[in-house]
Automatic annotation (TrEMBL):
Keywords: 2Fe-2S, Electron transport, Iron, Iron-sulfur, Metal-binding, Transport. The keyword Nucleotidyltransferase does not apply. It comes from the Bacteria. Its cofactor is [2Fe-2S] cluster. CDD domains: fer2. Belongs to the 2Fe2S plant-type ferredoxin family. Residues 4-93 form the 2Fe-2S ferredoxin-type domain. This is 2Fe-2S iron-sulfur cluster binding domain-containing protein.
Length: 95
C-alpha cells in the first residue's frame, strides 16, 4: 500500500496518509485535528487549499464550486492523496 506525506505548511506539521484513506482521518491518527463537522463532504468546515501535490476526492460531488476546485481547494474529510501533499489551513490543532 502506498503511503504519502502530508505537510501542513502553516503549522510546519507532517503526517502520513495511506492511498485511499481520507486526509482528515490520517491527520487524526497522527494526533492532529483539522476542524471538521459532517465528515461527508457537505458542510465545508474542513475546507483547505492544496499548495502542492495531487489529491483526489473520494465522493463524486464534494461541496466545492468549480472555481474552488480550479484554485486547488479540497475537503480533506473526503479527499485522499495521490502524491505527497502540502496543504494550507488555519484550523489545525494538536490533539
Ligand atoms: S467536515 Fe464537512 S465537508 Fe469536511
Amino acid at each position: 500500500m502506498k503511503i504519502y506525506s502530508v505537510t501542513l505548511i502553516r503549522q510546519g506539521w507532517r503526517f502520513d496518509v495511506q492511498a485511499g484513506q481520507s486526509i482528515l482521518l490520517a491527520a487524526q491518527e497522527a494526533g492532529i485535528r483539522i476542524n471538521s463537522s459532517c465528515r461527508n463532504g457537505s458542510c465545508r468546515t474542513c475546507f483547505c487549499q492544496l499548495q502542492q501535490g495531487v489529491a483526489r476526492h473520494l465522493i463524486e460531488w464534494p461541496s466545492l464550486s468549480r472555481e474552488e476546485k480550479d484554485d486547488a481547494y479540497i475537503l480533506p474529510c473526503v479527499a485522499t492523496a495521490e502524491s505527497d501533499l502540502v496543504i494550507l489551513t488555519d484550523y489545525a490543532f494538536k490533539l
